[in-house]
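B., you asked whether I could sanity-check this one before it goes into the benchmark set. Here's the sequence:
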Amino acid sequence: MASVADWLTGLFAFLGPGGTLLALFLVFVIDAAIIPTLPELAVVLSYLYRDPGVDPFTWALLLLVMALAGEVVGNTLMFLWVRKLVVDRGHLPRFLGRAMRGWTDLMIVPDERIILVNRIAPVVPFVGAFIAVVGWSYRRSIAYIVLGGAAKYSFLLVLVGYLGFVYDPGTATLITVVAVLVLVGVSVGAAALYRRRAAAPPRGAA
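And here's what the prediction gave me:
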């Protein structure tokens, strides 16, 4: 793990504080608008390998701001793309629209509040697309995205800050990577279990 830690140290040193913040922003934009990118891992590694001259608390706040900004921009881009180019032009297949609305109807809360649940169990992929198709309030949805993201990534930053204080960079990196992968695995498992239960017919049904 020491070689990995050395490589990460070199990578973040090459990027510098500004480059790291920009890279983190892009990771969150891509995760929200295109493909999953394990943003949880990106944010904690960005904190662990910060520039020694940057105050840890200030750095954590900057990372949190960039993460939330990336999520807002990514989800907004997805929302605008689906809304303007697909929904408003009548290019959305009817079966897909019905399926997306039917899926949200099966949720614990069939409205924008499911975005908060999504932070624990990602049952709604590409939230921006759902905002456009299902007809959720954009402002309310973005507020829940920011609220949920602030809670989740603040927790991760506090955790990684503690690990970085107690352990050397190599050990802290190992523990952090394992912890994040376990967290993601549990979230995916919880989402799969919820999907299975939501899709199952009610008890007693023929």
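One thing to flag: The chain is about 75% helix and 0% strand. Otherwise nothing jumped out at me.
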